[in-house]
Amino acid sequence: MTPIAPAYIGGMNSTPTLDQDAAWAAFVRRDRALDGRFVGAVRTTGIYCKPSCAARHPKRENVEFFADPVAARAAGYRACLRCKPDEVGRDRVAVAEAIRLIEAAEEAINLDQLAARVGYAPHHFHRLFKRATGVTPAAYARGLKARAAAEALTKESNVTEAIYEAGYSAPSRFYESAAARLGMSPSVWQRGGAGVTIRWTIAETSLGPLLIAATDKGLCRVAFDEDADALVSRFPKAEVAPGGAALADLAARVVASVESPERHQDLPLDVQGTAFQEAVWQALRATPAGETRTYSELAALAGNPRAVRAAGTACGANHLAVVIPCHRAQRSDGSMGGYAYGIDRKIVLRNREGVE
Predict the structure, then answer these.
(1) Which of 32, 107, 159, 304 is most exposed, with minimal Cβ within 10 Å?
(2) Catalytic site residue from 49, 53, 80, 83
(3) Annotation says 326 is catalytic
(4) Model confidence pTM above 0.70
(5) 53 is catalytic
(6) At what angle do helices 137-153 and 86-104 cross, to 10 degrees?
C-alpha cells in the first residue's frame, strides 16, 4: 500500500505539513511518484536527495526531511549530484508548459518543436512527459482533438464542419485517428449511436450483480447494481441487445477481475473522457495490484499536480468499475474517499489485493 504523500498530510483542504515517518518510508522504497514533493537531507554528508535517489540509504537518525529544496538549502544542505533533486521542479514546470502549449496550439506541434520550447532534448522530454502524464505528447494532443470532435459532432449539423471545428486539417486526418477512439464513425456518434450495437449481460459476482456492456470495440460500461436501461443515456439511439455467446468470454474475464483483482486482465476498452480524465484512468490502470494512489498523486501523474479535485472527479466519471481500478484511489490523509458502488465493495476489492 502506498503511504500517505508526506507533503499532504491532513487532507485535501488542510494546510500541508510534512510527516517525517511517512517521508522516510517513501525514501526507503525510492518512491518516484513522490519526487518533487519533498527532499531528504543527510546530516553526515550535508547533501539532500529526492525520494527515488539510487544512492545507498543512510541511517534513519542521520536524515531529516524538508518540503522543498529551498528549505533544505536554507538549512545548509547542498543538492545531490547523482539524483539532481533541483531538476524535479523544473521537469514539472516543463510538462505543465508543454500541456499549455499543446492545448493552445492551432496547428500540431511536433516533438522536436515542443521539446525546444521547454528546453529539453526531444528523446528525454518524450520519456519525461509520458512518465508525468501517462501518455506521450502526441497521444495527449490526439486526445484533445478527439474530445473536441466528439463535442462538435453533438452540436454541428454537418459532420465535415464538425471535423474542421475540432482542429483537423481534413476529414481523412480525423478518420485516421479520432474515429478509432470514438469507437464508431462520426456520423453515427452524432446520431446518438444510431446503428451501433451495445451488447450487455448481468453477471453474478460475490459483490452483487454486475452490468457488463460492450461495443464491437470493447467494454463501454461495467457497473454494479445497474441494468440495461442505464446504457441508453449515453447513446440513446444505439441498439441495446442481450450479449449471449458473443459476450460470454469477455464477461467471464471481467468477473475474474472482480473475484481476483490482483490478477491482471488485458481487456479491450471503448470509453472516452477528457485528456486529463484519460490520463488519470491510465495512471490507475498502471497502478500495480496491492498498491494505492492518492488523488494528489493521480493529479501529478496526469500532468497537473494542482488538479486534486479533478482527479477525484475523474475517478467518479470512470465507466468501468474494477477494470479501471478506481478502488485503488484514496485521499492524501489515508482515508479511502468515495466509491460509486459503496465503500463496502471498495474495502473488499482492496483487501483482495492485500491492502488493509
Answers:
(1) 107
(2) 49
(3) yes
(4) no
(5) no
(6) 30
